[in-house]
Amino acid sequence: MQALTTEQYKLIIATMREGSGSLRANPRCAAVLVAEANLGMRIGDVLRLRLSDIVKDGNRYRLNITEEKTGKKRHFTVPDAIYTFFCDYAKANHIEPTDLLFPIKVRVVQRNLKAVCDLLGLSNISTHSFRKWYATDIYNASGHDIVLVQHLLQHSSPTITRRYIGIEDAKIEQAIAGHVCLV
């Protein structure tokens, strides 16, 4: 699976929210993927998320969860816009703070994502592509700070993070392309 481009992310979310032709709109699945793409969480952790897992900490909101896969605490800041998005979503869907924000199964999200990608002619994209997009976007926006991205993804080493976002491959291709001397 690959990281999304920003254009693909926007197109997938818009299509999933609005539907297209015979494809029904699915705002819940769109919201799940928006959460994954904006918090860098794994899909399983997003689906276990409750509004009460986001706590006020001074002048910020932060996550207060334990990752299912790693068992590590996740206490990163939740941007105000994302917190507001979750609050609005919960209110519109009559979800209490201690209820699951997204009471659906991973398979449902995967099936809906596949249908949207098939409609759009996109391949090699999965729910995990949204976490990879988050990582790649942060990496590029931070001036290629791999340690920052490692910390945000809670990887054990920068090497794992480099491999995760495909830096080695890109650097190898760039080095080969930049080293041509025909004289």
List keywords for this structure.
mainly alpha; 55% helix; three-stranded antiparallel beta sheet; hpI Integrase, Chain A; 183 residues
List the helices and strands and how they pair.
Blueprint: H1 6-18, H2 27-39, H3 43-47, E1 54-57, E2 60-63, E3 65-66, E4 73-74, E5 77-78, H4 80-92, H5 106-120, H6 128-141, H7 146-153, H8 158-165, H9 167-177
Antiparallel strand pairs: 1-2, 2-5, 3-4
Describe this structure in words.
The chain is mainly alpha-helical and 183 residues long. 55% of the residues lie in helices and 8% in strands. Strand 3 and strand 4 form a beta hairpin. The mean pLDDT is 92.
Overall SS class: mainly alpha
Helix content: 40-55%
CATH architecture: Orthogonal Bundle
Show unreliable segments. Answer: none
Measured by DSSP, the beta-strand proportion falls in: 5-15%
Total of helices: 9
Cα end-to-end separation: 40 Å
CATH topology: hpI Integrase, Chain A
DSSP strand count: 5
What is the radius of gyration?
A: 18 Å
SSE order: HHHEEEEEHHHHHH
The main sheet comes to: 3 strands, antiparallel
Shape descriptor: globular
Domains (count): 1
Oligomer: single chain
Cross-sheet strand order for the largest sheet: 1-2-5
Summarize the structure.
The chain is 55% helix and 8% strand.
